[in-house]
Amino acid sequence: MQSLTIIIADDHPLFRGALRQAVASIDGEQKIVEAGDFDAARRAAESHVDADLMLLDLAMPGVSGFSGLMALRAEFAHLPIVIISATDDAVTIRRALELGASGFISKSSGIEEIRDAIQVVLRGDISTPSFYQGGQEHDPDVADLINRLRTLTPQQSRVLGMLAEGLLNKQIAYELGVSEATIKAHVSAILLKLNVDSRTQAVIQLGKINVAMVA
Question: Whole-angstrom Cα distance, residue 172 to residue 158?
Answer without folding.
Answer: 9
